[in-house]
Amino acid sequence: MGKALVIVDVQNDFCEGGSLGVDGGSRTATDISVFAGNNPYDLVVATRDSHIDPGEHFSDEPDYVDSWPPHCRVGTTGQHLHDNLDVALDAIVDKGFYAACYSGFEGEDSWGRTLDELLKLRGITDLDVVGIATDYCVKQTALDAVRLGYSTTVLLDLTAAVNPNNLDQVRADLDAQGVTVR
Description:
The protein is of the alpha/beta class. The protein contains four helices and six strands, in the order βαββαβαβαβ. The chain has helices at residues 25-38, 115-121, 134-147, 167-176, and strands spanning 2-8, 43-49, 91-95, 124-132, 151-160, 180-181. A six-stranded parallel beta sheet has the order 3-2-1-4-5-6. Helix 3 links the parallel strand 4 and strand 5.
């Protein structure tokens, strides 16, 4: 019975100055680093949005629901983890090469292992989920974790949202599915 920290999409394009930067993204990266340095985990995994050609996920006229401006293109600095994220990682899971992917459970590491496979290999049963964006990728990763049977907690103070006004609804959606929100 182990515990993992899943750091969702703390990337340059999702922090201030990035193509889809959210307010507080850089601070969130720093806060996660401090937290991870003071709280040992059996496994620490980061996810990254990593797009090559995600089809209609990219748009010149995005609706910011199903389509977005181009972001996190493979090989660009926007895809890189933010410099303020100073955490020893056991693995990085990339998602979204050719499709829109919001959950970290939709990706694979460089060895072709899914997040679920990585967690099971290490005997992980409990997850703390942090990162960007609370109302999209953090939420979907946490919901998939619960569906897969993991005891899951979102550490809300270690996330940044696209729309902070939606956090009450995000919390309600997570609570309704059995995700603990602290």
